[in-house]
Design a protein that fits this description.
The chain is α+β, with helices and mostly antiparallel strands. The chain has helices at residues 29-35, 110-115, 128-146, 153-175, 187-203, 210-216, 221-232, 236-254, 259-265, 271-282, 286-295, and strands at 11-12, 24-28, 45-47, 50-57, 60-64, 67-71, 75-79, 84-89, 94-100, 123-125. Strands 1-3-8-5-6 form a five-stranded mixed sheet, with no helix packed on it. It has a five-stranded antiparallel sheet with strand order 2-9-4-7-10. Helix 8 crosses helix 10 (271-282) and helix 8 packs across helix 11 (286-295).
Length: 296
Amino acid sequence: MVDFATLPIPAVPFVPQCRPGLGMAMMTFDKLCESAPPGFLAAPHRLEFHQLLLLKAGDGRIVIDSRPFQCGPGTLLWTRPNQVVQCFPEPGVDADVVVFTETFPLRMNQHIGMLDDVLRPAHWQLTDAEMALFQQVFGLLRDEFGRPDRGLGEQLLRHLLAVVLLHIDQMCRDHHPDPSGAKHYNSESRELFLGFRQELERSYRATRVVEDYATALNCTARTLSRACHAVAGTSAKDVIDARVALEARRMLAHTDLPVSSIARQLGFTEVTNFGKFFARRVNMTPGAFRRESQTD
């Protein structure tokens, strides 16, 4: 069985240069490029930390977990730990980059845990009003990061980063409002959904049956599905299938394993069933997806 985190793809550790011991750093995209060996950013690599990128000028393309995104002024990107990323910037890119460890953000409530989810959006094209807001909060974070620490610097940075993350959460809610008209889902739904996602990371290779996850979480399948609809706007089955499809894309793009072997490792007893599942989720066959990934 392949553990994706151990695949021979370079992993970039979190090693802050200017403020050692701090769980976050901020820099310009130019500085990020200067710190990387030539050609490294365009090759598949994994980050062992979170990275937010706010593009203010210029254009480029980034590939996150085999999904290409065209970027321009007003693009906001969030790369989570262990996602495979490739970056193809054009000359003249001006962007702010924030990197932080998984433990650095404030643990205010379950919102941040859900935003960390690799199945959540990684790319947004901001409106003018959203861009102005994010430039303001990124500016506050940049100013505080550049100041000498007088004793409360880390706490100030934690709170300012929380403001950035909560604005992302609010933006997602504005773009995808709850069809029921509810402004907030209850804490029980949030906690159950987070428990479901944690159990899914442990068990997606073994089962894609909603009832199995409900049993593990000591609830009914109906209760689990209601929590998924409330928090993620989709069914528990769709969340499960999305995670399996993500791993399939990763393995097809970044390993030479036969499709039949990938199918077995993801719990499919018949390769034809895996092919139908993949085509339904990704709109192309596994073979076509692998060829396209290699061409890119």
